[in-house]
Amino acid sequence: MTAPADPLSAAHPTLARLLRDLESRWPSDGERVHRISRYALLPAGKLLRPLLLVESARAVGGGYEESLPAALGVEYLHAGSLVHDDVIDGDALRRGRPTVVARYGVADAVVTGDALIMGMFAAVAECADQGLPADRLLDAVRVLARAGVDLCRGQAMEAELCGDAACGLDRYLTMISLKTGALFRGSCHAGALLGGGDATAQRALTGYAEHLGLAFQMHDDLLPYTSEAAATGKSALSDTANGRPTFPVLMAYERADAAERDALRTALRGTLPAPDAFDAVRRVLDSTGALRAARERTRAEVAHAKNCLAELPPTEGCAVLAAIADFSADRER
Amino acid sequence: MTAPADPLSAAHPTLARLLRDLESRWPSDGERVHRISRYALLPAGKLLRPLLLVESARAVGGGYEESLPAALGVEYLHAGSLVHDDVIDGDALRRGRPTVVARYGVADAVVTGDALIMGMFAAVAECADQGLPADRLLDAVRVLARAGVDLCRGQAMEAELCGDAACGLDRYLTMISLKTGALFRGSCHAGALLGGGDATAQRALTGYAEHLGLAFQMHDDLLPYTSEAAATGKSALSDTANGRPTFPVLMAYERADAAERDALRTALRGTLPAPDAFDAVRRVLDSTGALRAARERTRAEVAHAKNCLAELPPTEGCAVLAAIADFSADRER
To answer: Does the record's keyword annotation contain Transferase (chains A, B) (predicted)?
Structure first.
């Protein structure tokens, strides 16, 4: 049996189950933190990290039911982190509707993000009720806690790079490997642990996740220049307005002449009106051919990710993971 | 052997070890998130929650070394939560020096708080390296994750009560049982689990922690009226300025006549200058005798806490816990 065409569409059986289970665990009644958590979680995003955890578990012979709470848990951590991101950036829109901070204010956004983060660990521990052995679950807790700390390290590093178009591709790659890669790796590694995978399988899935995380973030950075704002659900200007040296900007900076580099540095310094800064960046992306180069590098990371899967037996879980890699760099949002 | 007089003084052997171990785990070098975490953790506060965890473990026959990482972990969660609290309240001083948000800004404060919360779970999992069985540690993870969620529920509830001097003592008690009590209960329960305590011992220590948490928060609420701001390290005006219906205010409201109630409601509504609001509250506290009544109720909670310990064998750990109860409602900061 082969995986359906798009593992990130709600028609995919694993994703459909995850969505159903997520909805049923977050009913619309309940007290304040619960209601705001629900607002942050539903309507659901791509559920990519839960999907990675479940399919990694299946790729090493584990089942869906037993790893389900942990799979939803990584979405809680992800959602909590996004809620806090929006507090930091002051972004008002996400997935096409008001962010938690825009709708409920800073206090509720900070507290709900914290509750979601803690909720992940409660969810992982809950897998013991599904019969998973405590040592596997404790290893998963450790892996996910470290992933969470790495995510924070990546966010702090992102802030340090902010406004600096000359920060260099290497520091950028370290940053996204932490900010985005860490939870991808954590999800796949935790799935491999919960599914009972051996050290080789754990390594293969963690390697896959590392490259997938890079590809995913690189593609994300490209979206403001290749997709309509309506599709991404956040303003295309946000990255530039916040002075973020994103992947295509850094690829352009490497290829740019002195005048173009100057234009990029100025655009990210926050002194221009946001639309002007965006247009200035866009012109250098065009003149240097950075967009095409960035897309090629993204596709190369996808290929690396899929290569890592060759270490595993060709199961359905593995096929879904390969399809996720393909779709991660070929999406509109 | 009896416990030294003040279990919350650095001269206490357990506390001295905790302090030493905390310092050695957070050296002053390291990257940004690590450095800011260190700033949030050191110089250390009272380390009350780590002390509760370790002494609860000892009270049921466990050891210091094996539960140490988890004990320090609950301090990470506590510190992370305070860092986020200060973001929410915009408080500039804590323990007599600039808060993390005042010194490093909102972005670093949010991210460092998150890293500290995640760091707790990594620390608990790390106890496996000390030879503690995985099932006990997983139970501790679950207990502490739920405590963390409860803490957030308490913070959200506190925000809901904000500005409302007429919210009533019952809602206040529910709120502090979550905001303060949850992590006290979590620490003692986790300690009982890690130390290998049976269900009776777990129940006794959780009951102890519940009453201790109430006493501790009630006393904390009294400090602005009984202690110098220099001793508490935060402005005595902060609670009133932030419109918090604290314990003595609610005790006063129950005892107040119509004019006094009106004065309390006005003082917490945020329309008066902070010193005037503080003075207005203080006058009603004096005229109603609420301060004395609040102190009596606090002492009653201390007595309840110590009664719970009667279920346990009279070990040194137990004696320290009893002394903590006494000192929790008899401190200047």
So the answer is: yes
